[in-house]
Amino acid sequence: MSEAALSPTTEPAVPSAREERIQWLLETIARNRFLPHPDPNSVFVGDGDFRAVGTEFLGHFIRMGGLQPQSRVLDIGCGIGRMAVPLTQYLDLEKGRYSGIDPVEGGIGWCRRFITSAYPNFTFQRIDIEHDLYNPKGKVSGKALRLPYAERHFDFAIMTSVVTHLPADEVLVYLSEVGRLLKAGGRLFMTAFVVDQVAAANEGGRRDPRLAFERHDDGPCWFVPDLPPLAAVGFDDGFLDRALERAGLATVLKSLGHWRGQAADHYQDVFVAECRGGGG
Fold first, then answer.
1. Strands 122-126 and 249-255
2. Taking the model in full, what pTM does it have?
3. Which residues pair with 102 in a beta bridge?
4. In the chain, which residues have pLDDT < 70?
5. What's the pLDDT at 2?
């Protein structure tokens, strides 16, 4: 008998009942042809398939972020509803609430027409924030941002592909607002590009070639040559950790993504941070 035959057999991992329910939900959403879907030409942010990316992130919100069906959710930079559409199938119609904000009027209009009309617990608001790429004539400076919600109103905040388009000083303001709006124990799910030594040097040669970041001045920002500065922004490793701490948010998970060339089930780097603030 061969040595291989004598070796113990490794049984495949059996998914938990919770994981089976999550997977069933995500597969059901992916197949649901009745969910709203914008014209591809009107999707102004993000790569990839609209439905597939949104569904993938719903899985991350639940598994990594601990999102619950009864949560009150704030989606900063909601765009044209890529995260909102799958969330309509998860948040409880009576107890769950979703508030999306974005500076692009067309995206907010589409969301109100096709999402709020069917899911009244989902609301969308345009905030006229100035941004060099998405809203250059905006009247509200990102350095003076004050979101129109009561303190400690939300259980869960989403910032996907937001700090990847912000300068460092505005990142501090946005995170301060999140720290003000989350309930104690509420969580922020944030994606970013963390430029550590491995990512900067591209040691394995597998980093996304579109993200050949170069440090801007003395840091902490990294920009991509030949692109507008805010088209893709990376930050020194440690900057976002300290910014979260400054905003009263304790990092409970930091997971590096596969944009840097390492194995991961998500592209950008992910932070999950919990609010330590008082109130209820």
1. unpaired
2. 0.92
3. 126
4. 1-12, 42-48, 278-280
5. 41
